[in-house]
Specification:
Elements lengths: L1 H39 L16 H4 L6 E7 L3 E8 L4 E8 L4 E9 L4 E9 L1 E3 L3 E2 L5 E7 L4 E2 L4
Antiparallel strand pairs: 1-2, 2-3, 3-6, 3-7, 4-5, 4-8, 8-9
């Protein structure tokens, strides 16, 4: 009788260990698969090529993963030339040194395609985009009026 209890107890212990091992393995596999899916996912982008010209980088998804290529510093503002490797677009962003105020910003492609934004009580503002995977572009901006521009890159 004692031997039977020992065998039953041992079997119950083994079943429990196998069950826990299976649960842990499943949890690890699920976590790994989720991490891989996140790494492989792309942001939802709603434009491509010249179809991005004149559109908002934020609402199109192009701003995700974008970075500043060049910054120009002026007395009242910083002007940044932004680039999206996903959409291959540029836009300008102006950041006020005086707090919320009226800002002007412009993106200009070397072939003359230009978009300007001017508006009321902001700490920063950005222009629409230009598709420029190989064509040079520059960013301009300032407080109240355009104070200056970055170089063409």
């Amino acid at each position: 009788m004692k031997r039977m209890r020992l065998v039953l107890f041992s079997m119950a212990l083994l079943v429990t260990l196998f069950g826990l091992t299976a649960i842990v393995a499943y949890a690890q596999a699920t976590t790994t698969a989720h991490a891989q899916a996140v790494r492989n996912s792309h942001f939802l982008v709603t434009c491509s090529g010249n179809g991005c010209n004149g559109l908002n980088p934020e609402t199109t998804g192009c701003a995700a993963g974008a970075y500043t290529v060049l910054t120009a510093s002026f007395s009242n503002a910083f002007v940044e030339l932004r680039y999206s490797p996903t959409c291959k677009t540029n836009w300008s962003r102006v950041l006020s040194r005086r707090g919320a105020t009226f800002l002007s910003t412009r993106i200009q492609r070397i072939d003359g395609l230009t978009y300007t934004f001017s508006g009321g009580n902001f700490n920063y503002a950005w222009s629409a985009m230009v598709y420029a995977p190989v064509m040079k572009a520059r960013a301009c901006g300032g407080v109240q009026v355009i104070d200056g521009c970055t170089a063409y890159i």
